């Protein structure tokens, strides 16, 4: 039995798996949970991040407005399913990730600069007042994801270097910092290997600490004659040296199959950005952007996902 090392989330959103379903990740039957109707003037609300906060949940949501400006707004929920979004952008950019560390909530996101995208960093205690830090790297990078605690005294950030477009750079790296200002000690983590992720890979939710290592959900991109297709995979990273990939599933865990994943502003996208993980039960609720249009929810357990990784391990 694999175990999550972390907090208990008694009110984690949850739905049992349908009997007979052989796969480790299953969708919420009332998907999508957030649509453009959640915010006036939104064209789409998708790749978004949530965390437990007080007795409920808080989040940072990617909103592409009718102007097609890409902004981040905060939102709050009692049950993780019904969300109230604040019509007050906090930052410009997209694809937020959140984690709780040192008694604060840390946000990383794809920040827009005149020179390309970089990784913005900020923290808050109340989701109303934000302190913005130095950008974590020079352009061009995306998919910046912090580990939720220091490892050997240093903060660690996963990144995916890229160019200004859709990109020949497809590999995940990480870097270290003692103060969240100066970043260095860059390490290669992983590159695309299998067909489902052949074009690029990028870190997804904040890594989840388990007794077998850091559980990393990530997205992989396949290029077909119909364009890109984004799916979700998973790997286990070494606890102390997380650039070492211990195990990695050779097949996706979730791919665009449902209509809300296959049709939308960008068809065929499953893009996980956050996960709630309950240490007591091993339950994991995954929030993912679907077709660059809405936010959907899927479930797994630490046990089912890690068993799938071992049964389909790329790293023999
Ligand atoms: C990536 C990012 C994501 C988006 C995906 C599919 O490069 O821009 O925000 O979901 O493409 O369009």
Features:
five-stranded antiparallel β-sheet, 316 residues, mainly beta, binds beta-D-mannopyranose
Task: Give the gist of this structure.
The chain is mostly beta strands. The chain is built from 2 helices and 22 strands. 4% of the residues lie in helices and 47% in strands.
Architecture blueprint of SSEs:
Elements: E1 26-27, E2 42-53, E3 56-65, E4 70-77, E5 84-85, E6 91-92, E7 94-101, E8 104-113, E9 116-124, E10 130-132, E11 141-146, E12 155-161, E13 172-177, E14 184-190, E15 200-203, E16 208-210, E17 213-224, E18 227-237, E19 245-248, H1 259-262, E20 270-277, E21 283-290, E22 294-301, H2 302-311
Antiparallel strand pairs: 1-22, 2-3, 3-4, 4-5, 4-6, 7-8, 8-9, 9-10, 11-12, 12-13, 13-14, 15-17, 16-17, 17-18, 18-19, 20-21, 21-22
Give the radius of gyration: 18 Å
Based on secondary structure, the structural category is: mainly beta
β-strand amount: over 45%
Mean pLDDT, nearest integer? 97
Describe this structure as you would to a colleague.
- The protein is mainly beta.
- Helix content is 4%, strand content 47%.
- It contains 2 helices and 22 strands.
- The strands form 5 sheets. Strands 2, 3, 4, 5 and 6 form a 5-stranded antiparallel beta sheet that branches. Strands 15, 16, 17, 18 and 19 form a 5-stranded antiparallel beta sheet that branches.
- Strand 20 and strand 21 form a beta hairpin.
- The longest helix is centred in the C-terminal third of the chain and has 10 residues, at 302-311.
- The radius of gyration is 18 Å and the shape is globular.
């Amino acid at each position: 039995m694999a175990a999550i090392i972390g907090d208990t989330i008694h009110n984690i959103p949850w739905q049992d798996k349908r009997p007979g379903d052989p796969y480790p990740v299953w969708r919420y039957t009332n998907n999508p949970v957030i649509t453009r109707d959640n915010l006036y003037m939104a064209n789409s609300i998708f790749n978004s991040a949530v965390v437990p906060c007080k007795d409920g949940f808080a989040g940072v949501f990617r909103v592409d407005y009718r102007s097609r400006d890409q902004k981040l707004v905060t939102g709050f929920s009692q049950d993780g399913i019904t969300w109230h979004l604040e019509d007050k952008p906090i930052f410009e950019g997209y694809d937020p990730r959140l984690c709780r560390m040192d008694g604060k909530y840390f946000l990383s996101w794809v920040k827009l600069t005149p020179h390309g995208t970089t990784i913005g960093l900020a923290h808050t205690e109340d989701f109303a007042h934000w302190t913005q830090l130095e950008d974590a790297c020079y352009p061009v990078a995306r998919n910046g994801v912090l580990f939720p605690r220091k490892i050997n005294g240093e903060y660690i950030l996963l990144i995916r270097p890229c160019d200004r477009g859709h990109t020949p750079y497809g590999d995940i790296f990480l870097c270290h910092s003692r103060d969240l200002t100066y970043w260095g000690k860059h390490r290669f983590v992983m590159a695309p290997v299998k067909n489902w992720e052949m074009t690029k890979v990028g870190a997804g939710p904040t890594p989840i600490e388990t007794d077998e290592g850091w559980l990393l959900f990530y997205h992989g991109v396949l290029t077909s004659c119909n364009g890109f297709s984004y799916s979700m995979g998973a790997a286990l990273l070494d606890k102390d040296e997380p650039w070492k990939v211990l195990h990695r599933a050779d097949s996706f865990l979730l791919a665009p199959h449902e209509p809300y994943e296959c049709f939308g502003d960008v068809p065929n996208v499953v893009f996980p950005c956050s996960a709630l993980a309950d240490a007591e039960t091993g339950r994991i609720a995954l929030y993912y952007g679907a077709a660059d249009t809405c936010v959907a929810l899927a479930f797994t357990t630490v046990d089912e996902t890690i068993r799938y990784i071992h049964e389909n391990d790329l790293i023999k």
